[in-house]
Design a protein that fits this description.
Strand content: over 45%
Region (Disordered): 296-328
CATH superfamily of the largest domain: monomeric porin ompg
Signal peptide: 1-22
Strand order of the largest sheet: 1-2-3-4-5-6-7-8-9-10-11-12
Number of domains: 2
Radius of gyration: 25 Å
Number of strands: 12
Largest sheet: 12 strands, antiparallel, barrel
Helix content: under 10%
Keywords: Signal
CATH topology of the largest domain: Porin
CATH architecture of the largest domain: Beta Barrel
Protein name: Transporter
CATH class of the largest domain: Mainly Beta
Order of helices and strands: HEEEEHEEEEEEEEH
Biased composition (Basic residues): 305-320
Number of helices: 3
């Protein structure tokens, strides 16, 4: 077992707020499993793929049909221009077999994108931006692990994007080629092991059936920091389709750049009823480079400053003569 990696993951679980102030973290930051997305970006020059294979059993007692859905959902994320911004492409490509129990229905199959959108997410507020105000208490384990009201103050990001409908998509009949989406994502660190994420989105803007979507997710990291579990609720409200879904599952961190996950879920009604399972992974291509801080801007020394020694290449004799003029 790689104990050095476990120690690093445990360190990140304790000091994540400080590291997240720069967006980038040493360990992959994935939106999987579930639908709720983090308020934080992946970090500048980080490319990340998140993919899952799904199966869903969907039955409708009112329209008298049973259906099976197979497919894949995926996201491509890239840290663009600076730490707080990422561009993301999200897609779901599915095939649905429909069997009607009534002779009036016509069995069939429909295959296409049920989700096909591109957007930008930008972090507008980060409560951990100032690391000096969020240093851990080195003298009290309880102070670092107990819940505090200030932990409810979330990081906040804004999202703007669009769904693209190409050709005769059976899942978006009558929709325009482009439909817009706006969203807010928040993220609170309730304790070193609990994270709360919430999303509110206004989707399908510009169609005949715009819809509100919301999600609330709680993630818990185990004592072995490679393992985590989550519980999520999602709501959808529109004249076309309304529903409430629940999900739960777990994730396992194989390495700093690779995570696997699995989750199951269902809704709470019969028109239609839905039960599904998803297995997936997240993989990161890390091209991030730390921003170097000029030495004259770093803190250190008795007076909190370090001056550049511009005489490094001059003779030892002159260095010795001027040594009292350098503030170490």
């Amino acid at each position: 077992m790689d104990f050095s990696f476990v120690r690093k993951a445990l360190f990140l679980s304790l000091f994540a707020p400080t590291l997240l102030s720069a967006q980038y973290t040493d360990v992959i930051n994935s939106n999987r499993p579930g639908r709720a997305v983090s308020a934080y970006a992946v970090g500048k020059n980080v490319a990340q793929v998140e993919m899952g294979l799904l199966y869903e059993q969907r039955n409708d007692s009112e329209q008298n049909f049973d259906s099976n859905i197979f497919g894949t959902d995926f996201a491509l994320r890239y840290g663009l221009l600076f730490e707080e911004l990422e561009i993301v492409y999200e897609g779901s490509f599915i095939s649905q077999n429909i069997d009607y129990s009534s002779p009036l229905g016509t069995d069939g199959r429909r295959t296409d994108f049920s989700r096909n959108r591109v957007g930008l997410k930008y972090l507008v507020y980060d409560p951990f931006k100032n690391p000096e105000k969020n240093k851990p208490n080195l003298y009290s384990w309880r102070a670092n692990n107990v819940f505090q009201l200030k932990n409810l103050i979330p990081a906040v990001s804004l999202y703007g994007g669009a769904t693209f409908t190409v050709g005769d998509n059976p899942f978006y009949v009558g929709d325009p080629v482009v439909a817009y989406r706006g969203a807010i994502a928040t993220q609170s660190r309730l304790s070193p092991r609990f994270v709360l994420i919430s999303n509110i989105a206004y989707d399908r803007i510009g169609t005949d059936f715009p819809e509100w979507r919301y999600a609330l997710s709680v993630t818990h990291a185990f004592r072995n920091p490679k393992w985590s579990v989550f519980l999520e609720g999602q709501g959808i409200n529109s004249d076309r389709y309304s529903d409430i879904l629940a999900r739960t599952g777990l994730a396992y961190l194989f390495s700093e750049n690779f995570q696997a996950d699995f989750h199951v879920g269902s809704n709470f009604k019969s028109d239609p009823s839905r039960m599904f399972a998803v297995a997936g992974f997240s993989y990161r291509l890390d091209f991030h480079k730390d921003k170097l801080i000029p030495i004259d801007e770093q803190s250190g020394g008795q007076n909190g400053k370090i001056k550049k020694n511009s005489n490094k290449k001059k003779s030892k004799k002159r260095d010795k003569k001027n040594k009292d003029d350098i503030d170490f």
